[in-house]
Design brief:
Layout: E1 7-11, H1 18-27, E2 31-36, H2 39-42, E3 50-53, H3 63-66, E4 71-74, H4 82-101, E5 107-111, H5 122-127, H6 129-142, E6 147-152, E7 154-155, E8 164-168, E9 182-183, H7 185-195, E10 204-211, H8 219-224, H9 250-262
Parallel strand pairs: 1-2, 1-4, 2-3, 4-5, 5-6, 6-10, 7-9
Antiparallel strand pairs: 8-10
Length: 264
Amino acid sequence: MSEHPFKILVVGATGSIGHLVVEEALRKGHSVRALVRNVEKARRLPADCEAVLGDLTVPQSLAAAVEGIDGVVFTHGSDGEGKIGSETVDYGGVRNVLSALGSRVTRIALMTAIGVTNRESAYNRSTESHDWKRRAERLVRASGLPYTIVRPGWFDYNKSNELQLVFLQGDKRHAGTPSDGVIARRQLAEVLVHSLTSEQALYKTFELVAVKGPAPSDLNALFAALAPDPADRYDGADDALNQPLEQEPQRVIDDLHAISRARR
């Protein structure tokens, strides 16, 4: 049971990570609201999870979803929709939820991906997924809201005895294969939920992988060892400076300014 129960909005609640986040948040004593696009998806959720209909790509549909919440966990993804999905869902969904929050002070946990700063991979060149996920990270940092950004390794490629969590920074593993690092989906869900109520996790961005060994008993100690993101720029601690703001599309720069103004 969490000492500080939250009202948590889970974005991507019916996905492979999102449904585990819902279960973990409920297990920790939080109340959970799930953003779903239709009634059929709502039926897949636990009975004690509140479902709210809305579409990440339709800003005006999100007002009810964010009403009265204390935290948001983003686990959504564009699921192979190419460059358009990368922008409208991976990035646009974060922008639209942050905009819907208005002046509310809400804790954010954003899931992106290990290798998100690798702009030269064939995957990123074909989908721009890394670029748009990184832009979503920047929106969260610009918002002024308390946040944690988690970049997980490859889901469920870990062996049964690989449960010892390792938090990395600087996003230096760019093989584009499970050799970059692996993580169990359930452990990822645990880290995302725990980050919402951890003071040690505030304003930190990290890659999450697991190696041979037991699961940790103290996530706060792992969070505490991380460097916070620099306050004078939009990137994570020790990230490569290979996506200059002055070269970004004007619409992205406009979004950063709009989100920043909303927090003043």
